[in-house]
Amino acid sequence: MAEPARRPGPAQAVKRFWADVTVTPDAGIALDGKPVRTPGRVPLILPTPALAEAVAQEWRAVESEIDPRAMPLTGLANAAIDRIVPDPARFAAGLAAYAESDLLCYRADSPAELVARQAAAWDPLLDWARATYGVEFVVTTGIMHQPQPPATLAALRQAITAQSPFALAALSPIVTISGSLVAALALAEGAAGAEAVWLAAELDAEWQAEQWGEDDLAAPARQARRRDFDAGVQLIGLLR
Questions:
Q1: Could you read off the pLDDT of 14-34 as tens digits, one per residue?
Q2: Residue 60 CA to its chain's centroid (Å)
Q3: pLDDT 10s digits, 150-201
């Protein structure tokens, strides 16, 4: 499985050392006129002016010390350049693996209300994929692995492999957090909204919280997932 495309935090805090942040003519970022580079020492050049401006805003917003958690677009851009550009097919293959056990294909057999919620949230996404890619899915109950048709896996693999390195960086947290390649592709293609995909991904957790209450550790973890999810969604929008 692919790891989320995010930049790890620095070993020690880096204090703000610049006064001015500008976007260069080639859609790079400059601090006091000096180009920003990725951790891999590659120039941080963005594929769209909108993304370049959004990344620049993250650098402008730094007050005293760099906090990578407050700079998610910068982190995803770094990942795209350093980790994905050298071998996009390999990175895409990690995301494609999620098609083999896509969340949307594993359903509860009871209670009836949960079954109905899953069908209402998940069936439209599978229907979209069936119509878009001409594939079929094996939908089952329980958690025992059920192989998907080889043609389905091949079509979804082709769809994710066709994405650009920056799109792969954006989709990485969405796929890994939701557990669904289908839902992430639907979002990327504009067939599903971000909130619908988020609610589909969190449906089972929401159900459990309704039944038993949410424990003290679940809420912060959910907030962290939502931050990473939203960063991926934002990046997708800035690539258009």
A1: 899 999 999 999 999 999 999
A2: 24
A3: 999 999 999 999 999 999 999 999 999 999 999 999 999 999 999 999 999 9
3-state helix/strand/coil string of the chain: CCCCCCCCCCCCCCECCCCCEEECCCCEEEECCEECECCCCCECECCCHHHHHHHHHHHHCCCCECCHHHCHHHHHHHHHHHHHCCCHHHHHHHHHHHHHHCHHHEECCCCHHHHHHHHHHHHHHHHHHHHHHCCCCCCEECCCCCCCCHHHHHHHHHHHHCCCHHHHHHHHHHHHHHCCHHHHHHHHCCCCCHHHHHHHHCHHHHHHHHHHCCCCCHHHHHHHHHHHHHHHHHHHHHCC
